[in-house]
What we know:
11% strand; five-stranded mixed beta sheet; single chain; globular
Amino acid sequence: MLHSGLDLHKRTLAIRTVDPDGRPVRDVPLPTKRDAITAYFAALPGGPAAQRAVVESTSNWYWLRDLLTAQGVDVRLAHAKHVKAISDATVKTDAVDAATLAPLLRGDLVPEAHMVSPEWREARDLLRARLQLVRQQVRVKNTITGLLAQYNVTVPTALPELVQLRVRLLHAQLTLVGEQSTALAAQLNPVLIPTPDVQRRLWIPGIGRVIAFTIWLEVDGIQRVPSARDFVSDCRLVPGAGNSGGKTRHRRTKDGNRYLKLAFSHAAVRAIQYFPAIRAFYQRLARRKSPVVARAVVAKELARIVYYVRRKQDAFHGTCKGTPLRRPKPPKWPRLVSPAVSLEPAPRSRASPSHLSGHQAVLPPLYL
């Protein structure tokens, strides 16, 4: 088995291949052209089926992974931050990076990053693009509010003429970005709404359609997460620790998935707002800790619920921290099935709404 480290850039690719004993086999720079890379691995002893390769998790690894996997090469994705921590070097070139990755792969020491499933890559990136549009909406709204405050007025018509023109352009931009955001989310509806795991999550407090989509696409298979504790950590819902000399210090950390952190943080706000039992739990925490910490604890509990609902393939039973939720979610679209029965749609006496096109709508009972 040969082991290849690849340092990928937009126009060039550095490759170092070593044999099972760590001796270099080939060390060449290549252009990022498919035929050149295919020819390189085809010329190695044993053919592509006897090859392993590792590439860092940069933004352009999709095509390389697909190309090598189609050849039969076992491809791994290295976590760029952790690789840097393991093998920080004074001299850093593309050849040095490739030469660092190959021995790590040979010794099974590569800190791997998760490679999203090919069938869900485009959907995940589409949802992330929607988040960028939402952020743009917030920036435009803040700009309009700032202009009103700058001239101490409450309506745009009271602004100077040229500033009114600027506000009209901002409103047009706001309308366009809102339409694009809605269109992106609508593209995912027929693909993700009928998914059983999405349907289960829609019954959890605070989790709506877009948040359920985000969790499903970002997690990409709960089986790879060994425990609820690891899942909560991956969602950035617990602080980092710097323990030394018998002292425990908590600190903020950027390790983990920031999209999951944002999703569960929004879910916590909505759960506190609409569910009295969760609001009471939050208020008890907020009296002893800060509101920010209390909301983070609520988000952590929602993440634990999501983990066990997905891991056990079971419906949400309407409790949080052992307390029954007295306010169930209303039975409406996009929830297609009852949480108390199998997630296979069953016929009922009521007619299906026309917008569900092909999916039997089962109105779930209100349960405590």
